[in-house]
Each structure stands twice: as structure tokens, then as C-alpha cells.
Design goal:
Number of domains: 2
Number of strands: 16
Helix content: 10-25%
Largest sheet: 8 strands, antiparallel
Distance between the termini: 38 Å
């Protein structure tokens, strides 16, 4: 339910001190439940406007991603609603799969791979395993398969050549099994400036387990202040969902981000220190 918010927040993030400004939130923060994409459902706070992302970019793909109808619960890979339903503002309209694989870093890899597939850039799909081995979609569709021997993953050539989307999903399940926050962190580079944070960037804590969330969208006001929508999957594998901002209910679901902040608190995780990165292949 829309709430009237009486909140004044001095903005020092990403702009010089002389340009510190108050975010106007004395009008309702609007979520238009009748709309079906990220950009159309979430209305920027007063004074902020959507940034026109580069046509054909991963950022544009994220901002225009379709959403499930409102009031749908977040479900796990067994299609069972998870216990806590208070942390999401919307759910992305994409399947979880039927195995406990598409978790936090995997959710980002799924979206990036789907983007490349939709752009007919399938030859660019490929990720490193945590072990350091690289495995591409081209390898898999041409018959290369994985085999575990003495707790090590090895590649074997087979005659199972297939470039169908169903086979593509099988390939991604292998990526989800053997890649994660550690490998994704190694394949990404730090974002150097606050104003350069964009949809598709990752907030990440590598580890076993670690965690990651990613930027779905951004808006900006006339003095260069940015706000962001964040999304994630979690454990067990579950619907990818846009997060509420439980640390700042006045601003929720929008977040402020600062690459220099000692920590970033999201709905279900505290990233300490803050590490905002971009996959190396994305310019």
C-alpha cells in the first residue's frame, strides 16, 4: 500500500559537497501494480527521472525486464512459497528451474546469459568455474561435457551436439553447479565512480557461502544524485525478486549506493565492505 512519507535526506553520495540536496519524499513513492516491467511499475521519487540506457545494452535489458503480476509470493525451486515474504517489492518473470541451483550469483549469470541469447550473441556466453576452468556455451553445444573424478571436474568430448534452448538451460545448470560468488568476483572489475554504477552491476561478497545482489535500474535527479533498485535470488534457489529497502522504509524500494561506504545493507544481507563490480566483458 502506498504510504505518504515525510522524510528529508541530505545527499552527499556521488556529487560534490556544494551540491548536497534534499531528496523530496513528501509525496507518495509510487509502485504502479498494473504495469508489467521494471521501468513501468516503479515510478521514480519526486525530482528523479529514469536514465535512458544505451539501446541494446545489458542495462536496457534489465530495466525493461518483465515482472510477474503483483501479490505473487516468492517461490523456491519446488514452487513452494518461501517462509519470509516481506522482503520483496516485485518478482521477475523468469523461471527458477527445478533444482536448488539458481541462487545468488547464479541469478545474475542467468540474466546475463539470457540477455546474450536474446541478442543473438550466443558465442559470448561463457563463465569460469570456481576451480578456474572456463566453460562456454559453444563448448557445450558442440558436445563437451563435465565429469567429476575424485572431486575434480574434467571435460570429456561426446557426440551430444545440440544448440536448442533446452540444451542451453542444461548448460546453465552446470554453470550454476560449479560457479558462484568466488568465480564471479574474480571475473568482475570494481566500479570506480559512484556516477558510473548502472543496471547489471553486482554488489558482491565472495565466499562459501558468499552473497551477491545486482542493480536492476537507476534514476537520477538534476544535480546528479542516483537511486537504484536492487534484485537477488537466495538460498534455497528461488524467484529472482526486487528488494525492499528495510533499512530506509521512507525510500523503499529505492537504495542509495556508495562505492566508498564501509558497508551496504540490503533487505537480507549486509555487505561489509561494500564491493560494487562489473563483469569484465561488459563495457
Amino acid at each position: 500500500m502506498t504510504k505518504i512519507i515525510f522524510f528529508l535526506l541530505f545527499v552527499l553520495l556521488g556529487v560534490p559537497r556544494s551540491f548536497a540536496q534534499v531528496i523530496e519524499t513528501t509525496v507518495p513513492l509510487v509502485i504502479d501494480q498494473s504495469k508489467s516491467t521494471v521501468k513501468t511499475r516503479f515510478v521514480p521519487p519526486k525530482g528523479f527521472l529514469w536514465i535512458k540506457e544505451e539501446p541494446g545494452s545489458f542495462s536496457e535489458f534489465m530495466v525493461n525486464f518483465p515482472l510477474h503480476p503483483p501479490n505473487l509470493p516468492v517461490r523456491d525451486f519446488k514452487m513452494v512459497p518461501i517462509t519470509k515474504q516481506q522482503n520483496h517489492a516485485a518478482i521477475l518473470n523468469i523461471d527458477v528451474g527445478d533444482k536448488d541451483l539458481q541462487q545468488c550469483a547464479d541469478a545474475w549469470m542467468r540474466l546475463y546469459a539470457e540477455y546474450l541469447w536474446a541478442q543473438n550473441r550466443k558465442d559470448e556466453v561463457g563463465f569460469h568455474f570456481t576451480s578456474g576452468q572456463f566453460f562456454s556455451w559453444n563448448d557445450y553445444r558442440n558436445g563437451l561435457r563435465t565429469k567429476e573424478l575424485k572431486n575434480k571436474v574434467r571435460f570429456v568430448q561426446t557426440d551430444q551436439k545440440d544448440d536448442s534452448y533446452e540444451t542451453f538451460r542444461d548448460y546453465l545448470n552446470i554453470i550454476f553447479r560449479y560457479a558462484g560468488t568466488i568465480s564471479l568476483d574474480k571475473e568482475s572489475v570494481p566500479v570506480q565512480r559512484n556516477y558510473d554504477i548502472k543496471p547489471g552491476d553486482i554488489i558482491i561478497k565472495p565466499g562459501s557461502p558468499g552473497h551477491s545482489v545486482f542493480v536492476m535500474a537507476r534514476v537520477r535527479n538534476n544535480v546528479g544524485k542516483y537511486l537504484y533498485l536492487l534484485a537477488e535470488s537466495f538460498m534455497p534457489a528461488q524467484d529472482i525478486h526486487i528488494l525492499r529497502n528495510n533499512a530506509s522504509l521512507q525510500l523503499s524500494p529505492w537504495y542509495e549506493l556508495d562505492i566508498h561506504s564501509p558497508q551496504t545493507t540490503t533487505a537480507k544481507y549486509v555487505f561489509k565492505p561494500t564491493s560494487i563490480k562489473r563483469f569484465h566483458a561488459i563495457k
